[in-house]
Design goal:
This protein has 200 residues and is mainly β. 2% of the residues lie in helices and 63% in strands. It is elongated.
Length: 200
């Protein structure tokens, strides 16, 4: 079977599923051989602003290729996701994120992620590795940045320089490293009754 969906020639989805020697009289067994191919091409990412209301003016190009072989009980997944030329705004924080690019792909039994985000005059690099053989999906995330703007509104202007390694799985998250704040400015409004403490 195959499926093809397109939206205003900018967003397209193509999926194909093959089940060799499958007999329609019954449901497929767990040992049923399968071949699946999914291709996604998105050139209009503005729909994300409807899903995540904090985002505005989201742009970019997203492509994904997913191939599944093997059987239902032992599938082998080959994944390649690519986001490039992306940008978005978070008005509540006064952020304009630009030149966003991120790639996620499988390498044998690992899921590898590499990305970059520019915020203000700073750059944040993201590297991640997930062990697909472990049930808890053990993941190591490496965050390295310099002078990254994390908030820029009338009350707060703060930049950060993180050097973090985060070990995460389904049960816990363990960060290790340091975050320097080379620049921070907080404007206290005396008319605000909550000015005696910092907001969350």
């Amino acid at each position: 079977t195959s499926l093809q969906i397109s939206s205003n020639s900018k967003n397209q989805l193509f999926a194909q599923l093959l089940l060799p020697n499958y007999q329609v009289r019954s449901l497929p067994t767990s040992k049923q051989t399968l071949y699946a191919n999914i291709d996604i091409s998105l050139k209009d990412l503005n729909f994300l602003t409807q899903l995540i209301t904090d985002l505005k003016n989201t742009k970019g190009i997203f492509n994904a290729q997913i191939k599944i072989t093997g059987s239902f009980n032992k599938p082998f997944i080959n994944l390649n996701l690519n986001l490039q030329q992306a940008s978005t705004e978070i008005p509540a924080l006064g952020l304009k994120l630009k030149n966003i690019k991120y790639q996620l792909h499988t390498d044998k039994n690992n899921l590898i992620g590499i990305g970059q985000i520019y915020s203000g005059n700073g750059l944040l690099d993201v590297h991640s590795t997930t062990d697909l053989l472990k049930q808890n999906l053990s993941t190591l995330v490496d965050l390295q940045g310099k002078d990254v703007t994390i908030i820029h509104n009338p009350e707060y202007q703060i930049t950060a320089t993180p050097k973090l390694k985060i070990l995460a799985n389904r049960q816990q998250i363990e960060p290790n490293g340091i975050i320097l704040f080379p620049k921070g400015r907080i404007k206290i409004n005396p008319k605000n009754i909550n000015s005696i403490e910092l907001s969350n």
